[in-house]
Design goal:
disordered N terminus, alpha+beta, 545 residues, single chain, two-stranded antiparallel sheet
């Protein structure tokens, strides 16, 4: 590189393509990792605004890391002493083995070429025949590299033009997920199906094995590079186990139709929201359809909360059930206090698009959440959250804890939760939560609902990308109820305590395919020991693209 600049100065002209190719080929040592790309002006490399400005040197001896035995010593000496167009760093280093950015190359050439006018005035410095022959020899020597570079640039231009003409969108990216599950109940009893909420009347559950799927297509659009418009198309044909009270919501799978729902294989817009920054530390989320708390608030359950496609298999094990009190259309705000804390606020209405009486955003069912998350370190998170809701259920736990469905009366709830996660090592993380809900059936009576869980996650177990998980907890349980509610609706406290025990091992077949065998064990379904234990087996295969 230095030798070529020397020759070019003698000639008074240069060919940038030859210089660039030759500088790459002459290097005797492999280049160091390239510096991060920057769009700062060229003068940052020469001027005082740079954090590490270069200074003009008048003698090669000023460069302490340049020795007479270096292969480029003579060329560097000539450029310094004869032409005065080489700069060094303030620490008297030349840093000759450092990779060269395009800005620095342009700045160096520009400085040297400024000497051309002076050289042209003094004819004694005009290039000799030997100089011309050396330059011609270099041109011929690197002709193949220059031709190859031109061909590669032409090829890239052709490919770029093709992609621009055939791209899906300049602003939208498509990604998808397909979950295929082979699942069934191995053993157990569930509550008797009837028009009233049953107590202890159990029946055998069908031992059917089913093969079902959930398909999602996400169209992620960004207009500024910092915002996100997500349009999700989804279809599912897996009926929830609780759809016809065949099984309590305790066993509902996360990738199924949802609590009390049925799969129909219809393609619907499952999620539609727009998030954008408001200042440096604040973001706003507008939820148009099927919004959920995890769209704007961390659920403090790393690895385990995979929304059905990865991680836990059931709704309960995915996150604290009180998060499910808030869903639908609405508005949310998230504000970060540096790297140590963040505040999330959200308001969602499940019937926000319904214009009929006792519906809409503010005249019907809703869920409002406030969460304060503390992050003392990257490995430890602690969160406190509160949800106020009206006419919504959490969709997990015993049938009695879903009071709006159970009583068909207006229900108001105030829920309080705490959650924490601690990554003790790269291969082991522990999560936990506890939640309490104070419920009031309007003009009828009150009830207390509790839940808790602890989860262990083992990332990269056996292979990078794998994940093993164990979740043990108590799904929402009606632990206390007023006598007026029992008298009016026959709702009594849950007599026993059922444990939800779930284990899974997610095996990464490739970057796009994962297979997860899992077992879910409910020790006393519906928090009633008169119902025999239920065991659900599942093999989930997840495809992502």
């Amino acid at each position: 590189m230095l030798k070529i600049l020397d020759l070019c100065l003698k000639l008074g002209a240069t060919t940038l393509g030859i210089i660039w190719a030759a500088s790459s080929a002459i290097a005797s040592e492999p280049p160091v990792a390239p510096q991060p790309t920057t769009l700062e002006p060229i003068n940052l490399y020469n001027g005082a605004e740079s954090e590490d400005p270069m200074e003009q040197v008048s003698n090669v001896s000023q460069l302490t890391d340049v020795n007479p035995g270096d292969w480029a010593y003579e060329s560097l000496r000539a450029l310094v002493e004869r032409y005065g167009c080489i700069s060094g760093y303030p620490d008297s280093l030349f840093r000759g083995n450092r990779s060269l950015s395009r800005y620095e190359f342009a700045a160096g050439v520009n400085t040297c070429l400024k000497q051309i006018e002076k050289l042209l005035v003094d004819t004694s410095n005009v290039a000799t025949r030997q100089d011309l022959e050396s330059l011609q020899r270099l041109t011929q020597e690197f002709q193949a590299e220059i031709s190859s570079l031109r061909a590669r640039v032409d090829n890239l231009e052709t490919r770029t033009e093709f992609l621009e003409n055939h791209q899906f969108s300049t602003t939208t990216k498509l990604n998808g997920e397909v979950v295929v599950a082979l699942t069934g109940i191995a053993t157990g009893q569930g509550p008797q199906s009837s028009n009233t909420i049953p107590f202890g009347n159990s029946r055998e559950i069908p031992r059917n094995t089913v093969l079902a799927a959930r398909t999602r297509l996400n169209f992620d659009t960004s207009f500024t590079g910092e915002d996100l418009l997500r349009t999700r198309l989804q279809s599912t044909n897996l009926d929830a186990y609780s759809a016809n009270t065949t099984l309590v919501p305790e066993g509902d799978l996360r990738f199924g139709a949802g609590a009390f729902g049925t799969g129909s294989n219809q393609v619907v817009i499952d999620a539609l929201f727009y998030s954008f920054p408001l200042g440096k530390n604040t973001s706003v989320v507008l939820e148009a359809n099927a919004g959920a708390s995890d769209d704007f608030a961390a659920t403090i359950n790393p690895f385990i909360d995979g929304d059905g496609g990865s991680g836990a298999l059931t709704n309960f094990a995915t996150r604290n059930p009180i998060y499910y009190y808030a869903s639908g259309s609405g508005l949310a705000i998230n504000h970060k206090f540096g790297n140590s804390a963040e505040l999330s606020l959200g308001y969602l209405a499940p019937n926000g698009a319904n214009p009929l009486t006792s519906n809409g955003l503010f005249n019907g069912a809703y869920g409002a959440i406030a969460q304060l998350l503390f992050k003392p370190s990257e490995k430890f998170n602690l969160g406190f959250y509160y949800l106020n809701a009206y006419n919504t259920d959490n969709g997990t736990g015993s049938l009695n804890t879903n009071l709006f469905r159970a009583t068909n009366l207006p229900v108001s709830t105030n829920s309080y939760g705490v959650g924490a996660s601690w990554q003790l090592s790269p291969q082991f993380l522990i999560n936990g939560w506890a939640g309490y809900t104070a419920a009031r059936v309007i003009n009828t009576g009150d009830a207390d609902i509790w839940n808790y869980a602890i989860a262990l996650a083992f990332p990269d177990l056996g292979k990078e990308g794998n994940l093993a998980g164990i979740v043990v907890g108590m799904e929402p349980k009606l632990s206390g109820v007023s006598s007026s509610l029992t008298t009016a609706k026959g709702i009594g406290r849950d007599p026993d305590t059922s444990l939800h025990i779930e284990g899974f091992y997610q095996y990464k077949v490739s970057d796009n395919v994962a297979i997860t065998p899992a077992l879910v064990w409910l020790t006393a379904p519906n928090h009633d020991e008169r119902n025999s234990d239920i065991v659900i087996g599942t093999i989930r295969t997840t495809f992502t693209f």
